[in-house]
Amino acid sequence: MSIMEASLPQALLEDEGEDKRLLALRGIGYPEEGRGLRPEAMGRSKDMRRVVRDIRLVAPTEFTVLITGETGTGKEMVANAIHQSSPRGKGLFIPVDCGCIPATLIESELFGYEKGAYTGAVNSQPGRFEMASGGTLFLDEISSLPLAVQPKLLRALQERKVWRVGGRTAIDVDIRVVAATNQDLEKMIQNGRFRMDLYHRLNEFQVTVPPLRDRQEDIILYARDFLNIIRTELGKAVSGFTTEALEALITYNWPGNVRELRNVIRRAALCCDPPEAGITADHLGIAAGAARSIEVHSRCYSAKPEPGRDGKGSDRIPLREIIRQTVRQMERDIIGEVLKQTGGNKAEAARILHVDYKTIYNKVREYGISL
After folding, report:
1. How many helices (DSSP H) and strands (DSSP E) are in the chain?
2. What is the DSSP letter of 241?
3. Bond preceding residue 274 cis, omega within 30 of 0
4. Domain termination residue (choose one: 174, 209, 244)
5. Residue pLDDT, tens place only, 210-230
6. Is residue 241 within 8 Å of 249, Cβ to Cβ?
């Protein structure tokens, strides 16, 4: 396999062993079932490398973290990675979706209740704060928390103590809190819907997860991961993706972000028949009208397009040119990373990448890779 073949999206989605080997060389890695999610599994784009950097920076601390981003971008994945990478990683990771719990029950869900606190409370029950003691409490959609409960949450965060509903004594809790929202909390503060003091208590460190449409490099990586999972789930040996399917994945706008991508891959794998033929653009069922414009893609590259390449005399870059430039960048990154690991030894890099020395030598000159 040549370096170019290893860099092509087709190769990334056809050969599982080679795919994992190349990604491992890039320091990306894959999530492993039962071992938690590693930050390295999150993506190769510049924006996600920044997210990984932030995770590694804040994970060893006891900072309260606020994760922001659109719906479906993977905020819980980031929270889980912070937990797994922290000294609390062996403790429990307790997620709470504040938007799914009725306002009348949210206090007892968070802080617990004592027997007889209200009708139906026949036994005392611990809340999520107590359950997460020694680990991490993840408060998703924190913007949905009722105003009446917000000061009680603030007090629990400050004192590391909770009072059960109907209780008379404080209970110590040893937890770290990570919160997430897809809303603009500062605007909510201005509208009187969120407390400023709670916002600043939650926002000791902020991690912003970018939308999938802004990190094109990660789309194929995620699609590959999801397909691996679905193969096992369905017991169906789907061979991979056709070139047309890859183009559709790259150019779609993904308004539902990573969650939508996962659902699209699941549905496509189910519909793929025969599985050895691979997933086609038709299997994906992505509406052509929802694809992003070529102009958006062209801003990602420094290469100047040839006038009129799209047949309309504009400066838009054709899709195949975008893919060509993406492949070249991937190839350059892979070679550069392997050479870095080998201390600039081209012969050793050629051995690792299963190509001849001349190929490595020529690519280093072509891409201007510094050793």
Report:
1. 18, 9
2. B
3. yes
4. 209
5. 999 998 888 988 998 899 999
6. yes
